[in-house]
Design goal:
mainly alpha; globular; 517 residues
Length: 517
């Protein structure tokens, strides 16, 4: 493919992705589902057929998406929900893939190797698809953390199992003890690689505190963690996730300026959005509807098999959680059951099946058809289910409390920034006192109202001259500090995305007004 054709294809994909985004927002349907259907529709418009490449997804797209999700995951909330996450991501994947493999072996008359590979591939809960849905539909923070945490670690466990099955197929045999030992070494090795890279890069963040350098460093960490893990024969997926968690918790600490944190998180949000768009458009382009029709009975059986596997994984394992942690509500379990959407990683692993495996083409066709029906069917039904279960419903009093919390947090963040400006000598004392008093009025008003709400025991309460240009620059820094505080609160699930987005829009208008003055 020459450069001119590549540019033409890129332009078509960008235009289609933009159109799909606008249409999905107007129709209130899942962006991921819209992209897949858009990819199906534009196949004939492309100058030449393109498709997914397994190495492109595994070596480039997957680390970017995992790192973006990890740095936006609050490690303290992850720690509080680690027990159900571990149950679903470790024994859950084994149970689900095993049940799926047994049903497909007898239903499609596959060999054990083919059935086990297909079972593992279909046990993957695609990180991209699930997080995309939960960004569009707000859910309780604990449920969201469980879903995102399972999606992050589910990929690593599935990739390890996939490699073990291929190793058994090549070697001819592998004892259970040897398999468990290798699984342990691969996972722990990935954790160690992620810890080392995460802590090393966090120290560099604090010393540099430069937005552009931080972006380059995080890209290097995300891609490098995966490649180093692969080179050392440990889990690159686990390494990327752990490194992202460390960077998000320690690298983006209060020691780093608000503008650096905001720039970095905005970059990764844009990178994740762009990669998501290309992946799901390419999935739609890759699907051959004629092949799908021919394999439709096998595809429907595969969907039934992995749903049975998921059912026997979610409900029994989460019933055990009540013995050692807070119980998971039934309504949440329904969401976790239906939320096992398949996506790009399943397709990449299907491409990765060696040519020595008999029936490889049949397995790829089944996986592609399953992914398409999963994205369209579950991608549309999951937001509907969440709304039907009233998981995303916010009462008027809860919304009022979060508005006041946002006002209080942004005011205090701006005051902290003013204090640092005064100490560094940037801000005159008189201007400091005037600006701080204005923010103090906002803080005091929010604190008073929150105190009144608390006292009423609301059930949902949980706690153009040079001088002019200089003042504009200071105001801009204060507004950036407010945005940073809001972004951090949303990352830690303290405030809902709906509230934060609304206040960020107000701050952006103030920033634009400063630019126009």
């Amino acid at each position: 493919m020459d450069v001119a054709q590549l540019v033409q294809i890129l332009i078509i994909l960008l235009v289609v992705a933009t159109g799909v985004a606008l249409l999905c927002r107007r129709l209130r349907v899942s962006y991921v589902t819209g992209l897949v259907l858009g990819g199906l529709a534009i196949t004939e418009l492309l100058p030449r057929r393109i498709g997914l490449d397994s190495s492109l997804i595994l070596d480039l797209f997957l680390p970017i998406l995992l790192f973006e999700a990890a740095i936006n995951t609050d490690i303290s909330r992850l720690r509080s929900t680690i027990k159900p996450i571990v149950l679903l991501a470790a024994p859950g994947v084994v149970i689900s893939s095993g049940v799926t493999a047994v049903l497909l072996k007898w239903g499609l008359r596959l060999t054990w190797t083919e059935a086990l590979l297909l079972g593992v591939i279909l046990a993957i809960t695609d990180t991209v698809s699930v997080i995309a849905v939960f960004k569009e539909v707000p859910v309780p923070s604990r449920l969201s953390t469980i879903v995102e945490g399972e999606s992050l670690f589910n990929d690593g466990v599935a990739l390890v199992l996939f490699s073990l099955i291929l190793e058994v197929n090549t070697a001819g045999s592998l004892t259970i003890l040897d398999g468990l030992q290798e699984f342990f070494v691969v996972v722990v090795g990935g954790i160690l690689v992620g810890l080392v890279l995460g802590y090393l890069s966090s120290g560099l963040f604090v010393r540099a505190d430069d937005p552009l350098s931080s972006i380059l460093l995080t890209v290097a960490v995300a891609l490098g963690a995966f490649q180093i893990g692969h080179f050392l024969h440990v889990s690159g997926v686990v390494a990327v996730v752990v490194a992202g968690l460390i960077v998000g918790t320690f690298g983006l600490s209060s020691s780093v300026s608000a503008s650096t944190r905001l720039t970095l998180l905005s970059f990764w949000e844009s990178a994740g959005f762009g990669v998501n768009s290309f992946i799901f458009l390419l999935i739609g382009i890759e699907i051959d509807l004629i092949t799908l029709w021919r394999t439709l009975p096998a595809v429907l059986l595969a969907i039934l098999a992995y749903q049975v596997g998921r059912l026997l994984c979610v409900y029994p394992l989460l019933a055990m959680v009540r013995w050692f942690d807070r119980p998971i509500p039934w309504r949440w379990q329904h969401v976790l059951f239906l939320g096992n959407i398949k996506g790009s990683l399943s397709m990449a692993l299907a491409f990765s099946i060696p040519t020595t495996i008999t029936g490889r083409e049949q397995l790829i066709a089944i996986v592609f058809g399953t992914v398409l029906l999963s994205l369209v069917g579950q991608g549309v039904s999951l937001p509907w289910l969440v709304k039907r279960l009233q998981l995303s419903k916010f009462s008027e009093s809860r919304q009022q409390v979060e508005e006041l919390q946002a006002q209080l947090m942004t005011g205090k963040a701006a005051q902290d920034e003013l204090d640092s400006l005064l100490k560094s000598g940037v801000l005159p004392k008189a201007v400091y006192e005037e600006m701080r008093s204005a923010y103090q009025v906002r803080v005091a008003g929010a604190e008073k109202t929150l105190r009144e709400l608390y006292n009423r025991r609301l059930e949902e309460f949980h706690p153009k001259s040079g001088e002019h240009n200089k003042l504009d620059a200071i105001r801009r820094r204060l507004l950036l500090a407010e945005k940073g505080a809001l972004t951090e609160a949303m990352r830690k699930r303290i405030l809902s995305e709906e509230i934060v987005r609304g206040r960020i829009q107000i701050i952006d208008k103030q920033l634009l007004r400063l630019e126009d003055d």
